[in-house]
Amino acid sequence: MRSLKHVLRRLKHAPMFTAIALVTLAVGIGATTAIFSVVEGVLIKPLPYPHSESLVGVWHTAPGLKGIGDEINSSPSNYFTYRDESRTFQDIGMYRDSGVTITGLAEPDVVPALAVTYGTLQALGVQPQYGRWFSQADDTPGSAPTIILNHGYWQRRFGGDPSVVGRTLIVDTKPRTVIGVMPAGFDFRNNPDVIVPLQFDRKVTFLGEFAYNGIARLKPGVTLQQANADLARLIGIWLKAWPPPPGYSLGLFQNAGFGPKLQPFKQEVVGDVGTVLWVLMGIMGLVLLIACANIANLLLVRAESRQHEMAIRAALGAGWRAIAREMLLESAVLGILGGVLGLGLAYGALRILVTKGPQTLPQLSEIGIDPVVLGFALLISLLSGLLFGLIPVLKYASPEVATALRGVGRSFSHGREQHRARNTLVVVQVGVALLLLVGAGLMIRTFQALRSVDPGFTRPEEVQLLRTMIYPAQVKDPEQVMRVQNQILDKLAAIPGVTSAALASDAPLEGQAFSNSNTLYAEDKNYSAGQAPPVRQFRNITPGFFNTTGTSLIAGRDFTWTDLYEERHVAIVSENLAREMWGDARAALGKHIRQGYNNDPWREVVGVSADVYDKGVQANAPAFAYWPALIEKFGDDPVTATRFAVFLVRTKRAATESFLTEARQAIWSVNSNLPVFRVRTLKDLYDLSMARTAFTLVMLAIAGGMALLLGIVGIYGVIAYAVSQRTREIGIRVALGAQSSEVRRMFVREGLLLSAIGSALGMIAAAALTRLMSSLLFGITPLDPLTYAVVPVFLLAAAALASYVPARRATSVNPIEALRAE
C-alpha cells in the first residue's frame, strides 16, 4: 500500500504524462473491449435457448439440381417423414417468416409473423409465459385457428394483460384464439410480433416445395455425424413415401442426389459475419499494441529522467527487484485506470452500436457489458500494463543496470544505445499502422468497386415501395384482384411528381425473402428422362415494372395490360438467362419456356431485360424469368393473381411524409381495408445489401485512423525528445555555422528513416496478413497495387510532418544559452 500511494502521488505530480497515457490506453482498451463484446455476444455466447448446442438447422444438398443444389431447405413431406421416422431428433419443426393483418382492435395492425409447425417451439424449448405451445392438433387442417403473441407485442397492444389468453383476434380476416404469450427475451427470426401455426395437409403433400426452414433438437448424446447419417437414411424413406408433384417424374428427384446437410443452428444464425468480427478483433488488438508501444515510449523517457533518482536509491541499497517492482506497479496502475476509462468508452460505443448498428448483425440484443466482457477488460488492462511496463524495467531495472546506477550521476550519457529501444517501438508502431491502413484502403477500394457495379436499376432513392395484401375473403376472383391493383396504380400515377408506377411479387433486392424459384424448361431443349433442367428464379410483374425500376430492356418489349387481361402466354427473361440458354440476348425472342409443371403452357419470350443483382452487388446476378402478374394455368391454379404484392412508384418525393400520406390515401381510396406495410425505398434495400461491407469499412477506417494518430504521436515524441536531449549538440552545431535547414533536415531525416523501416516491415506483414480478408474483398486482390502504392506515401508524408514540427523547434535554439545551460 505504501508503494501504491507513492506511485499515485508520482502520477499526480506528472499530470500531462498521466493524462496522455490514460487517454491512449483508454482508446486502445476501449476499442478492443467493444469489439470483444460484439464477438462474445454474437459468436461465443450460446443462443438464448436451453441447451442450444443441441439445436441444428435442417438442410439438404442436391448436386443434380443446377442452380440451387448446394443448400436446399425443407418441404412439408420432409417434415412428416422426419417427424415420424427419425431416431436422432428429439423434436423437429419447420417455419418461415410471414406477416399478418390484425383487425378488431382500435385500428388495423400489420405485424411481422412467424409461421411454425408443431415441434418448432418445442425444439427451441422456451416455455410461454402464459398459456401453451401449439399442439399437434393446432397443426391439423380444419382445427380451430390459434395464435401466440410475442412479449413485446403483448405489452404494446394489450398493456401486459394476462387475460388476453383465450381472447379472439381477427387475423387476415379470420378469427384466431390467443393460446399463449411468449416470455420477455424470446427472440427468434428477427423477433416477430405473433406466431401462427403452419397447417400441412398430408392428403395433398408431395415431394418438393422446398420453401421452409427446418430446425431440430438432437436427442441427448447424439452427435452431428450420427444425425446426418440418420438423415441420409430418412431421405431414402422420403423418396419412396411421397408422390412427385404433377408434371414431375420420380426419376427427377432420385437423380437429384439428395443428401443430408445438418449444421449447428448457431452457425445458421451467425452466418458469415464471424469472419468479419474475428478480423475486426485482430485489428483492434493491433490498435491496442500501438497504444502499448506509445505508453512504453513515454515510460522509457520517464525512466531516463529518473536515472539520477534510481542511482541514489541503488547507492542506498535498494535492489533491482525493488526498483523493478515499483516500475511494474506504476505500469499496472496505469493499465487498470486506462482499462476503467476504456470500459466507459466501450459502453458508450456499444450503446450506439445496438441502437444504430447494422440490422444484418445477428443477436444484436445480446451485445453488452457482461461479466465475461468485464473479465476480458480487466485481463487486457493488466496484460497491457505488463507489456508496456516490462520494456523500461528490462532496460533500467536489471541487476547489471542497478549496479551500474550506483556510479552514475547527473552526467549520465544519452548515447545511441539509450534511443534504440524508443526507435524500435516507433518502428513497430509505424509498421502496425501501415498494416491497418492497408486493410482500410482495401475496404475503401472494395466499397468503390461495389458502388461501381451497375445493380440493374437506377436512382433507387426515387423508387418508393409499398407492400399490400388482398385476401381471398376481400376479393375472390383473380381478375378482379388485378383490376383493383390496376386502379391503385392509376391513382398512384396521378399523384403530383410521380413519373411511373408498377406492381410486382417482389422488388429488386427483396428477392431473398419473397421471390420464387422452380425448374425452367425451354421448348427447343431436350431433357432426358429424370434429367432436371436448371432451377431459376421468377418474378410476377405488371407493365411498367422495368421503367419504374430503371432496368433497361435489351431486346423485345415489355408486357402490356392486354397481355394480362387476355391471359396471353408471354414471358420476359433476363439477359444472363437468355445467354445461358440460347447464347445471345436477341436469340431468346420468340423462344418458348415454362416452369416445371407439365400442365403449364409454353410461354413465348417477348422481351429480354438487363440483369439485376437481386442478391446484392457482391453476388452474381441470378437468372430470372418474368411472368405476368395475372397469369393463366400457373401451377395448380387455372388463373393466378399476385395478391401479396409490392407497389413500386418512381418519384423524387419518395420517402417524404407528404408523399407517403398521399400514397396511402390513393390505395385506401380504392379499398380502405387493404393493409399497407414494409414502406421503404429501393435505396433502403440497396444500403441493406451493402451493410456488412459498410460496417467493416467504418470499423477499419476508425482503427486505421487511431493507428495513424498513435503512430504519428510516437514519431513526434521520439523526435521531440531527441531535440530536448541534444540541445548542447545543436548549440555547438549552430555556433560552428550550421544552417537552420541543415538542422531541420537532420531530425526530419531521422523521423523518415524510422518511418521507412516501419513501412517496409508493415508492407511485408500486410502482404501476408491481408490474405485473411480475401472473403471480404470484391473486385480487387489482397495485393491491390494502388492501395500498396498510396498508403506508404501517405504515411511517410504524415511522418515527415510529425518530424518537422519538433525539428523546426531545434533551429530556434540559442547556442550561447544552450552551452551556458550545460
Question: In terms of topology, how is this protein built?
Answer:
Blueprint: H1 2-12, H2 15-44, E1 55-58, E2 60-61, H3 76-85, E3 89-103, E4 109-116, H4 120-124, E5 130-131, E6 146-149, H5 151-158, E7 168-171, E8 174-181, E9 194-197, E10 213-218, H6 224-241, H7 250-255, E11 259-260, E12 263-264, H8 265-270, H9 273-305, H10 307-315, H11 320-356, H12 371-396, H13 399-405, H14 416-452, E13 463-469, H15 478-493, E14 498-504, H16 511-514, E15 516-522, E16 535-541, H17 545-549, E17 553-556, H18 561-565, E18 570-574, H19 575-582, E19 592-595, E20 603-609, E21 624-628, E22 630-634, E23 637-641, E24 644-651, H20 657-670, E25 677-681, H21 682-689, H22 691-725, H23 727-735, H24 740-769, H25 785-810, H26 815-821
Parallel strand pairs: 4-9, 6-8, 16-21, 18-20
Antiparallel strand pairs: 1-10, 1-12, 2-11, 3-4, 3-7, 3-10, 5-8, 6-9, 7-8, 13-24, 13-25, 14-24, 15-16, 15-19, 17-20, 18-21, 19-20, 22-23
Helix pairs in contact: 1-11, 2-9, 2-11, 2-12, 3-6, 9-12, 9-14, 9-22, 10-13, 11-12, 14-22, 14-24, 14-25, 15-20, 22-24, 22-25, 23-26, 24-25
Structural class of the helices, strands and pairings?
Answer: alpha+beta
Global mean pLDDT: 84
Number of strands: 25
Annotation field: number of helices: 26
Low-confidence parts lasting 5 or more residues at pLDDT below 50? 408-414
Beta-strand share of residues: 15-25%
Largest sheet: 6 strands, mixed, barrel
